[in-house]
Amino acid sequence: MLTHLDEHGRARMVDVGEKVETHRVAVARGEIWMAAETMNAIRDRNVPKGDVLATARIAGIMAAKRASDLIPLCHPLSITHVQVDFMFRDPDEAHPQPWLEITARVEAVSRTGVEMEAMTAVAVAALTIYDMAKALDRRMRLMNVRLIEKHGGKSGDLLLEP
Amino acid sequence: MLTHLDEHGRARMVDVGEKVETHRVAVARGEIWMAAETMNAIRDRNVPKGDVLATARIAGIMAAKRASDLIPLCHPLSITHVQVDFMFRDPDEAHPQPWLEITARVEAVSRTGVEMEAMTAVAVAALTIYDMAKALDRRMRLMNVRLIEKHGGKSGDLLLEP
Amino acid sequence: MLTHLDEHGRARMVDVGEKVETHRVAVARGEIWMAAETMNAIRDRNVPKGDVLATARIAGIMAAKRASDLIPLCHPLSITHVQVDFMFRDPDEAHPQPWLEITARVEAVSRTGVEMEAMTAVAVAALTIYDMAKALDRRMRLMNVRLIEKHGGKSGDLLLEP
Amino acid sequence: MLTHLDEHGRARMVDVGEKVETHRVAVARGEIWMAAETMNAIRDRNVPKGDVLATARIAGIMAAKRASDLIPLCHPLSITHVQVDFMFRDPDEAHPQPWLEITARVEAVSRTGVEMEAMTAVAVAALTIYDMAKALDRRMRLMNVRLIEKHGGKSGDLLLEP
Amino acid sequence: MLTHLDEHGRARMVDVGEKVETHRVAVARGEIWMAAETMNAIRDRNVPKGDVLATARIAGIMAAKRASDLIPLCHPLSITHVQVDFMFRDPDEAHPQPWLEITARVEAVSRTGVEMEAMTAVAVAALTIYDMAKALDRRMRLMNVRLIEKHGGKSGDLLLEP
Amino acid sequence: MLTHLDEHGRARMVDVGEKVETHRVAVARGEIWMAAETMNAIRDRNVPKGDVLATARIAGIMAAKRASDLIPLCHPLSITHVQVDFMFRDPDEAHPQPWLEITARVEAVSRTGVEMEAMTAVAVAALTIYDMAKALDRRMRLMNVRLIEKHGGKSGDLLLEP
Fold first, then answer.
1. Does B6 touch chain C (CB under 8 A)?
2. Average pLDDT in the C66-94 region?
3. Which of B118, B138, B119 is nearest to B33 (CA)?
4. Which of B14, B17, B76 lies at the smallest CB-CB distance from C109?
5. Per the domain annotation, does E12 fall within a domain?
6. What is the DSSP secondary-structure string of C40-109?
7. Residue A6 lies inside a defined structural domain of this protein
8. CA gap C115, B17 in Å, rounded
């Protein structure tokens, strides 16, 4: 016998040992679409579970620090900065409902980029908003979680949206 | 002095001690929109980091178990079942791009529902897919993460989508 | 050879399998002594790192859920309620400085008491306050972290302070 | 299109929601084979990093509580008892070297067995012993980690070794 | 609409990307006040749950490594040294009861100080002592957890107590 | 009074602050002995819980990132590469049963070696295999988990096995 396993598709953490540590930045953004009454309740701090955005902000920041613990092949690194911001938005052509915009900016001095940290911060902040307000509105949905920009590393600057 | 803080908006974990333990089910679903080449690479297991869906499935299952550790006011509970499924989808009227559908079903015997566990499984599976394939396609986006159905508890059955 | 180790002093998690699940409550309390300017900055939300009490409340709630992960022989259990409250206090006979009082109430339906969950919530909320305000005042100190009351279980009610 | 993924081999957490909670016990055991001088240093508490067995016992107990967080498809449950014991052993027919025996007993009232909790406690206690003593002996090896007995649940009692 | 949220009081992790990595040291200290019989039981290793100080030392060291996971805005960093020490103390003018002194020293090569790691080590070691001995004495209290000294970084040396 | 504790055997995390960061590699290996039918089921992906090796590989990689969180005195560090491989093996003189060989390679740029990360990856991958296949074969055993080679650091290269 002595059969080597077929290694096609075998998961492994990419080797970044040869990369140099540089200043890295990533910005990710997402949206939560919700009913107008839900948005009003969040804005007016009338949600029974408490201040939705303050809680979601903390959850997003803490999740950024745990990205490599949640995502199997994500490299661990020491974040130097995280910021999570929210903006209330009216319906428009692309958005049939009121929506809350979540933006996370993460920075580090590291061998790999911090996109996953920023994406994780947005996703977990959004999940927290869902959790806080779900008694009011179970039809909220998380939309358009995506990378907006990244800086640093060999691939240089990438600006996907203005 | 001796000023009580204004308790308006104060976050707290809702008291569920009076609720009875019942069989709970929640199903959540989400999508990742991606380029056709990205989807082909995932389906053909040609992504350099390894088998994308097998890795994302494990990440989603593990994240379901950690929902209460990530989401500040989410109650801890002991999950009895988690399943995460994927389906490749062609563009259609509502989807200008090929998309991958992620569905998570979570069950427990508990005092609270398991919506957050199912939503977290979908979100973390999606983040993992983004991480695995981001070298191919940084413009993937996570869409339509929402609750599909829930069963059990005082509020009974809720079927949001067929 | 075949020497049994001296088992004197050997740590072990106490067996609670024979105990019945009952409704458990514990209340713990602690204080942070600080300079008057520090307290003013916290109350007026003028601390550069952000809203101190909202952040500390979330940290305390999340830490209660993790008590058994931090404290080696503490039994895991599923908390049904956590509440963390703060009160600003003036100096008095027992307190030469202004002080912030932290109270945590934890409940569960469990085989063991929830004292450690309540004590951990107070301690981590206090550490968070120290972290948020330490640039203003490195001499803050955490005082009088203690159990106030507990209910449920074989030992019944215990009221250590009015 | 609309291709169902081949679901052959798809990982999922087995549904245990129909099982009843019963008293569960599992005992696992393992060995570390080491040089005679290493064993002497451990027994005499002459290892520079500190008391090897006290540290390994705590690590094993804490790891038992985290088994479902480490092992992807392992069900979370609330342990009611953990005990980790060590015994120094002389070489014999089956053991060409001195060896340290590690035994972990775990109990819970749960829907699934606690074998993985007991196996994890043994493995992490052994890893801790390796870590504490590796400066003395890098050739230590972990041997014979296996299940000894289990009780409770539908499959009843299982006694694999006397 | 398009209302920017009021950003007053918004929590964020301070940007330390511009700081240089230097050798950092922090020493924190705290006390547990207890009945004389409790102290005797701890010292004589007569506490039923096991060796109190060995367990608390491990808990404190492990907690130092997790400070940034517990405290929302605390930066992650890689600790290079942790030490936790205990000293039994008699009552004196400032201490009406026997007390146990806990001192934690933490070091790192990092962009931020390690005060929170040292403070967390003291607090969690103290919580562990409470947990181990609470069956003997529920009136123990944690006192005077404070920073003693810090070294390294732009602010230089700070010696708060001799 | 004022009794210094006997500090003999006191656990502490070794100070590595003076060491320089160098490229570190460690390779660890282990075996799982099992029945021929069990091995066939794993190889043919006929195990009801799902693809055993894909799941175990992910579990091993994630565990490598958590070694310092599991092992009390293990230093935290940022891994740059992890790879976990499996090979099916026939019985031979040293192995009375079919066996599955697990090899983990871990790299980092760090002040300490990565032996514990590699050993932990092997152990947790093995525990996962046990968990996935235990319904088929409760007599599997984990054997020969040991360090194979290490590179980097003051002690230089160490090749324990060819």
1. no
2. 97
3. B138
4. B17
5. no
6. HHHHTT--TT--HHHHHHHHHHHHHHTHHHHSTTPPP--EEEEEEEEEEE--BTTBSS-EEEEEEEEEEE
7. no
8. 17
pLDDT at residue A4 is higher than 50:
no
Distance in Å, alpha carbon of E100 to nearest chain A alpha carbon: 33
Backbone angles phi, psi at F40, to 5 degrees: -60, -40
Predicted local confidence at residue E7, as pLDDT? 56
Query: Taking CB atoms and an 8 Å cutoff, what residues of chain C touch D67?
Result: none
Total count of domains within chain D: 1
Q: Could you tell me which of B154, B156, B57, B151 has the C-alpha nearest to residue B100?
A: B57
Interface contact A59-C55, CB threshold 8 A: no
| Parent domain of A127 | 27-157
E131 given a catalytic annotation? yes
Confidence of residue E77 (pLDDT cuts 50, 70, 90): very high
Tokens standing for B129?
């897919």
Instruction: Confirm whether F34 is domain-assigned.
Output: yes
F133 closest CA partner among F60, F36, F30, F39: F39
Whose CA is closest to D57, among D7, D105, D114? Answer: D105
Q: d(Cα F6, Cα A69) in Å, to the nearest integer?
A: 38
> Is C129 part of the contact surface with chain A (CB cutoff 8 Å)?
no
- What local confidence, expressed as pLDDT, does residue A155 receive? 78
- The interface predicted TM-score of the complex, written ipTM, equals 0.95
The amino acid at E32: I
Whether B21 shows a pLDDT value over 90: the answer reads yes
Tell which residue, E86, E106, E92, E105, has the closest CA to residue E32. E86
Q: How far apart are CA D37 and CA D51, in angstroms?
A: 16
Q: Is A33 helix (H, G, I), strand (E, B) or coil?
A: strand
Angle, helices C115-133 vs C52-65, to 10°: value is: 150
Query: Which amino acid belongs to residue D155?
Result: S
Mean pLDDT, residues D28-45 taken together: 97
pLDDT tens, A75-103?
Answer: 999 999 999 999 999 999 999 999 999 99
CATH of the domain at B119: 3.30.70.640
- Residue E16 in domain: no
% of chain C at pLDDT higher than 90: 90
What pairing do the DSSP bridges indicate for beta strands A79-89 and A22-33?
unpaired
Q: Note the residue count of chain F.
A: 162
pLDDT at C119 over 50: yes
Adjacent-strand bridge partners of B87:
B101, D4
In 3D, which of B115, B123, B104 has the Cα closest to residue B158? B115
Closest CA to B69 of A66, F70, C120, D121: A66
Catalytic residues of D: 131
Residue A155's SS3 state is coil
Provide the token pair at B110. Answer: 């508990």
Q: Do E57 and F10 touch (CB under 8 A)?
A: yes
- Taking only the tens place, the pLDDT of each residue in A36-79 is 999 999 999 999 999 999 999 999 999 999 999 999 999 999 99
Residue whose tokens read 């100070």: F15
Quick one: pLDDT at residue C156? Answer: 81
Burial of B19 (0-12, 13-18, 19+ CB in 10 A): middle
Query: Residue F142 and residue D115: Cα distance in Å, rounded?
Result: 14
